[in-house]
Task: inverse folding
């Protein structure tokens, strides 16, 4: 399972970085989103992978911490998702403004030639 | 727990509430929004100054000179904390002192040239204050995002193709850096199991050797995120273009944005990788030193090469960041003390310079500049609007006053006596040349000589560049038309320059404060103890059951 997750994160971030080096604004926003997904998975994996383990303690009875997943990375991921979503929306607006002002979707606002 | 104990959270709450409140009013009610914003910023400045006073006077209850505010009353490593110590108090005051002039300046014209200026401005202040106050790495990320998100909006304030283009680059680079920030934070959490800065500092020494590499990788990635914000050499090419494109008051408040990255490094480098960090002691210091010096060299070349004054100021920010990064890389308390003084002085000077640029540029080609600004702001059919706007007192003897302000900000930027730029550089140089105190002789390394040389040459380069643009502006025009400058526009510049004069006159007390700050940064024992042992507020006594 670690292997699959590692490959997944690697593919997401690798494709994201590739797209980030492309000259079109649409490629940039897709690249940034892919990187954000990869990073979110990465944060999640830093709490160690456990299957079918709840992050919230059950009430009553003795508690064995080994039965539970680490809740902090999950909380961090939630925050990161919200922030990433908001910044992506903001970037989308700027992208459209740039497209409208310059008539080009090149990051420099004009075609290379 | 009296209301004074809650003062620590006011610098975060006050701008948040004001910013949210300003959203309720219609855009057309400029005057009301401006008044609310100014009142709130003045309140913020007062709070920041009183927090500085609290941080500087250790009491019996507060020996560590660090006030810890437990959010939600959870004990330190489990809950999120706000920590007020000398460094954060100083940065709060600096933020407020930059915010006030930038805001007043914007009221002359700029605040009307786009929607939600006042809201974004307050949210930017909230992000800055929060980043300076927080004692938790993830919370630092959140406040970074708050300040960046509002800076994206402010960067585009006034619109126009140039701003949108520079803003697009600025946003992409900062979003990518935020991803690095998250990766770094997650790796550090994965190894150390905590995100509280004080707790991390304790646990890093205990990390087993097998995990050490992962920890260093995490810290390195986190450091790169900070260095992107600070504009270190291979990561800082975006900075001059972005700052040049921003509207004058926005650029003036942006002067502190690059210092947020510097602040984070200044706080975390000695705390996490100071003397008590086991095998990781001194991690990254040589990188900071070399990178800082490379940034200074790049900034020097850029300052000499730039024609537009806005770019000149942008490259000067790179020089100032480079100086600070190299000084952090030296990793000793006296150099840090000098660097802190230099940070305050150079940030205020460059902020004043950004405000001044727009006024001075009106001398050169007033018609073109006014037209350019108007077209930037409104499109090209707004001639009447311009006439209606010129309300307020125009100052007499404009050229003399502009010239004096320009010359003094030049002195400050170049670091020449008698103003505070000189004292900052002098303090850094003294500390660098006498690492063991004044009396003991000590051998100096090559990097020390290179750093000192670059520091002196950077002053020379700034002086050459500013003299050149001063001559072009004030002496070269033949039919010198006196520009129209409002009192509201020149007063903020004068305010910032007066603060720099104040820094010079009260150099002794200020330097003492900086030395104490540097001492506590480099021996973080009291900071850690203060955070980890912060007392919880006892719950209110329950009424006895009947």
Result:
């Amino acid at each position: 399972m670690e292997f699959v997750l590692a490959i997944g994160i690697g593919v997401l971030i690798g494709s994201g970085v590739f797209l980030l080096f492309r000259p079109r604004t649409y490629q940039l926003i897709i690249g940034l989103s892919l990187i954000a997904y990869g990073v979110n998975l990465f944060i999640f994996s830093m709490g160690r992978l456990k299957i079918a383990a709840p992050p919230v303690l059950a009430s009553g009875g003795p508690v064995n911490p080994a039965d539970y997943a680490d809740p902090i990375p999950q909380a961090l991921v939630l925050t990161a998702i919200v922030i990433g979503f908001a910044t992506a929306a903001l970037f989308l607006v700027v992208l459209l403004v740039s497209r409208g002002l310059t008539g080009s979707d090149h990051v420099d606002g004009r075609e290379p030639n | 727990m009296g209301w004074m104990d809650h003062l620590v959270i006011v610098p975060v709450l006050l701008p948040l509430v004001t910013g949210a409140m300003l959203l309720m009013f219609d855009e057309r009610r400029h005057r009301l929004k401006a008044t609310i914003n100014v009142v709130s910023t003045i309140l913020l400045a007062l709070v920041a100054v009183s927090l500085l006073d609290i941080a500087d006077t250790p009491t019996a209850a507060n020996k560590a000179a660090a006030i810890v505010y437990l959010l939600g009353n959870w004990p330190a490593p489990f809950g999120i904390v706000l920590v007020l110590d000398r460094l954060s108090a100083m940065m709060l005051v600096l933020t407020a002192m930059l915010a006030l002039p930038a805001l007043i300046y914007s009221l002359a014209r700029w605040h009307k040239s786009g929607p939600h200026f006042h809201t974004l401005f307050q949210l930017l202040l909230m992000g800055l204050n929060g980043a300076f106050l927080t004692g938790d790495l993830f919370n630092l990320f959140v406040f970074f995002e708050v300040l960046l998100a509002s800076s994206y909006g402010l960067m585009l304030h006034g619109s126009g193709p140039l701003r949108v283009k520079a803003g697009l680059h600025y946003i992409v680079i900062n979003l990518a850096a935020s991803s690095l920030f998250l990766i770094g934070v997650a790796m550090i959490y994965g190894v150390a199991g905590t995100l509280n800065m004080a707790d991390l500092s304790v646990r890093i020494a205990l990390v087993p050797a097998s995990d050490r590499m992962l920890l260093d990788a995490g810290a390195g990635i986190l450091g790169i995120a900070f260095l992107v914000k600070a504009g270190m050499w291979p990561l800082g090419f975006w900075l001059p273009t972005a700052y040049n494109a921003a509207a004058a008051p926005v650029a003036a408040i942006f002067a502190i944005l690059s210092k947020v990255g510097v602040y984070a490094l200044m706080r975390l480098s000695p705390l996490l990788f100071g003397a008590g960090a086991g095998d990781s002691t001194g991690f990254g210091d040589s990188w900071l030193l070399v990178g800082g010096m490379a940034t200074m060299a790049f900034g020097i070349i850029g300052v000499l090469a730039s024609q537009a004054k806005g770019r000149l100021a942008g490259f000067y920010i790179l020089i100032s960041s480079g100086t600070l990064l190299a000084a952090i890389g030296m990793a000793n308390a006296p150099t840090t003390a000098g660097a802190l003084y230099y940070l305050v002085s150079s940030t205020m000077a460059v902020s004043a310079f950004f405000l001044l640029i727009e006024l001075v540029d009106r001398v050169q080609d007033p018609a073109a500049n006014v037209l350019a600004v108007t077209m930037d702001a409104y499109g090209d059919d707004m001639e009447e609007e311009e006439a209606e706007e010129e309300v307020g007192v125009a100052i007499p003897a404009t050229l003399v006053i502009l010239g004096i302000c320009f010359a003094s900000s030049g002195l400050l930027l170049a670091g020449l006596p008698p103003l505070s730029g000189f004292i900052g550089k002098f303090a850094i140089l003294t500390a660098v040349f006498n690492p063991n105190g004044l009396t003991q002789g000590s051998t100096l390394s090559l990097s020390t000589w290179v750093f000192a040389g670059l520091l002196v040459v950077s002053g020379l380069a700034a002086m050459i560049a500013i003299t050149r643009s001063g001559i072009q502006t004030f002496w070269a025009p033949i039919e010198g038309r006196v520009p129209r400058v409002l009192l509201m526009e020149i007063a903020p510049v004068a305010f910032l320059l007066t603060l720099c004069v104040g820094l010079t006159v009260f150099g002794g007390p200020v330097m003492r404060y900086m030395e104490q700050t540097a001492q506590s940064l480099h021996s973080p024992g009291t900071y850690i103890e203060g955070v980890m042992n912060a007392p919880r507020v006892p719950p209110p006594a329950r009424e006895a059951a009947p």
In short: Chain A has a mean pLDDT of 88.
